[in-house]
Amino acid sequence: FEALSDEELKAKTVEFRERLEQGETLDKLLPEAFATVREASKRVYGMRHFDVQLIGGMVLNAGQIAEMRTGEGKTLTATLPAYLNALPGKGVHVVTVNDYLAKRDAETNRPLFEF
Questions:
Q1: Does the pLDDT value for residue 52 go beyond 90?
Q2: With 99 labelled, which of 19, 43, 108, 109 sits at a CA distance of 20 to 30 A?
Q3: Quick check: 76 and 41 in contact, CB under 8 A?
Q4: For residues 72 and 13, is the Cβ–Cβ distance under 8 A?
Q5: Number of domains the chain is built from
Q6: Rounded to an integer, what distance in angstroms lies between the CA atom of residue 4 and that of residue 12?
Q7: CA–CA separation, 1 vs 13, rounded Å?
Q8: Which range among 3-7, 36-40, 72-76 shows the weakest confidence by mean pLDDT?
């Protein structure tokens, strides 16, 4: 994914949606979708998800809880399953413990999701 231009990387979303319409599952798309978010994050923020954050994203995607300490990248981790589960076009809700964090993380992640 590093070799893709910005436009090619952005086009992955359209490709994934077309593949979903053709019957492919989110689970099948997960590795490529996570790779897309990881590369987009690197380009937008200069931050690349660590392997442990990718695993955390898989855990969250499976509907389970991933315990992470302060500073371990919960906000960045949540971008992975949020993107994947937004692909069908039905929207995604990310829940956090207070209004401050909800607003902060929405503003923080906006440039990534608008990429």
A1: yes
A2: 43
A3: yes
A4: no
A5: 1
A6: 10
A7: 13
A8: 72-76
